[in-house]
Amino acid sequence: MTLAYVALGSNLEQPEQQVRAALAALGHLPGSALLRHSSLYRTAPVGYADQPDFINAVAALETDLPPAALLAELFAIEQRFGRQRSFRNAPRVLDLDLLHYDGVIMSEAELVLPHPRMRERAFVMVPLAEIAAGQDLPGVGDVSALAAALAGDGIERLPEAG
């Protein structure tokens, strides 16, 4: 089994419920197990600003799926949730990004690992640090230090659902 981290985000159609349902869907991926996930966080949109805030989280999976197959499964979940890819950084029901796959470093047209912009994004690094504090991920760096540097970038941890 290989450890992988997946970022989740939604800003349409009850985003908190979308992210929670997507976490449950990750737990049913073939050859995979959901190990843990972060709290939910509210963040401002990046890129295209004229849209609602996002709800974000990060999940840790153990998987037997190779990176490309895992990515295909993530895209299939997005499709089931009604994801439309109208333009870059558009509002979306669900966005799933494969962030890191057990130290694999690759750059292909369909998949770059680790995710090329994860180090710059509070909505990735802060939730990742919650579940991977103290880890030094190859190609990324010290998760806790990167998250601390981005913590002031307008990210708000939501209270736990009752």
Can you describe what's shown?
The protein is of the alpha+beta class and 162 residues long. The protein has one domain (2-157): Alpha-Beta Plaits (2-Layer Sandwich). The chain contains 4 helices and 10 strands. It has helices spanning 15-26, 67-80, 122-132, 143-150, and strands at 2-10, 32-37, 41-43, 54-63, 95-101, 106-107, 112-113, 136-137, 141-142, 155-157. The strands form 3 sheets. Strands 1, 2, 3, 4, 5 and 10 form a 6-stranded antiparallel beta sheet that branches. Strands 6-7 form a two-stranded antiparallel sheet. A hairpin with a 4-residue loop joins strand 6 (106-107) and strand 7. The model has no long low-confidence stretch (mean pLDDT 91).
Summarize the structure.
With 162 residues, the chain is α+β, with helices and mostly antiparallel strands.
Please supply descriptive tags for the structure shown above:
two-stranded antiparallel sheet; 162 residues; 28% strand; Alpha-Beta Plaits; alpha+beta; six-stranded antiparallel sheet
Provide the β-strand percentage band: 25-35%
Report low-confidence residues grouped into runs of 5 or more.
none
| Mean of residue pLDDT values | 91
Name the helicity range.
25-40%
Rg is 15 Å
Per CATH, the superfamily is 7,8-Dihydro-6-hydroxymethylpterin-pyrophosphokinase HPPK
What would you say the CATH architecture is?
2-Layer Sandwich
Please give the domain count. 1
Order of helices and strands: EHEEEHEEEHEEHE
The CATH C-level name is: Alpha Beta
Query: Any idea of the CATH topology?
Result: Alpha-Beta Plaits
